[in-house]
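Re: your question from the hallway

Yes, I did run it. Sequences:
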Amino acid sequence: MRRYVDLCVFLTDIENLDKMLAMAKHLGYHTVSLTLTNNNMADSKIIDEAKKIAIKNKLNIVFRYDINTENPKKLRETVRKIWRRYEIVSAYCISKKIARIAGKDSRINILTFPLDTSIKDIFNDAQCSLMKAKNQYLEIRYVEIAKNTDLERRYANLLRWVKIAYENKIPIIASSGASRPQTLRSPFEIASILTNSGLDIKSARDSISTIPMKLIEQGTLKTRGRLINKYVKVIKSPLCIG
Amino acid sequence: MHRLRKRYILFDIHYFSKPLDGKKIFSKICEMFKKIFGIIVYSSADLKLIEYDQNLHIGIVRISHKHVENLRLALALIKYIEDEEVLFHIHKVSGTLKSLRKDKNIMVR
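Structure:
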């Protein structure tokens, strides 16, 4: 049986979180990734509270940090600071420069591109080869598609990027990108965005279940200090003798 | 002539303040479907509202079996109906009304 994952639910305020997680459970999610950004950093108290709410709603949660900056130096600094603390690290690539730098960094797991962008070739074969070398994923967010402005450009970019990612064998992740319970959508509805963009039903459903789950498993190993890099994993600690 | 295959879709709708009328909901679904896929696809989809329970806010729509994924997308993209924020959730897709009504009864219970 598939276990569905919403890999991008923004943690904006703790009062809304209970409703949000209850709705996610109702819609059929098994795991939700609570996403923090530069603008909404949460302290350890809020994180503990979020864990309690998740247990109450019988939902698994992981934490993700989404870096949203135009400054390459700030991007590198932030990655260095946070990558061991969060299961998943992602970058929102506003410019081509940020996209290329993030694509070269193996500590960043997911790249997201603004669908309404007019920058030519922000996501192309060259970007894909960088991402493939660093085992990165492409993320498509529902909230980006559901915005009512510039629909033609959004769909044109979506169709083109899904095709490029599929041809270059870059794994695609679909998520809601919700910051309120009203903007959550069920996993099948989110998968339908990809099926209508040219992916087959199985691949579209994998992009909200098995693919993000694999990433979460890797991330959990990383935060527990059991993953040194993508090739080196600690299987057993040495025995302390004497 | 080849008989068109149909699918029945059981959905529920979450609205966050006032209840909505079934006709308005269905006209919004049609409007969104036309906006995304165009009139030709809409007319071949053979979309019809079978029933809608305003108290339980559960409904059933019928559509051609080729356009189920299109309807999912159209429902996902509906954010507002008459300035009211809504969330559609498809519970089950079935080939017969009988099995869908059985599921609906289980849901209600």
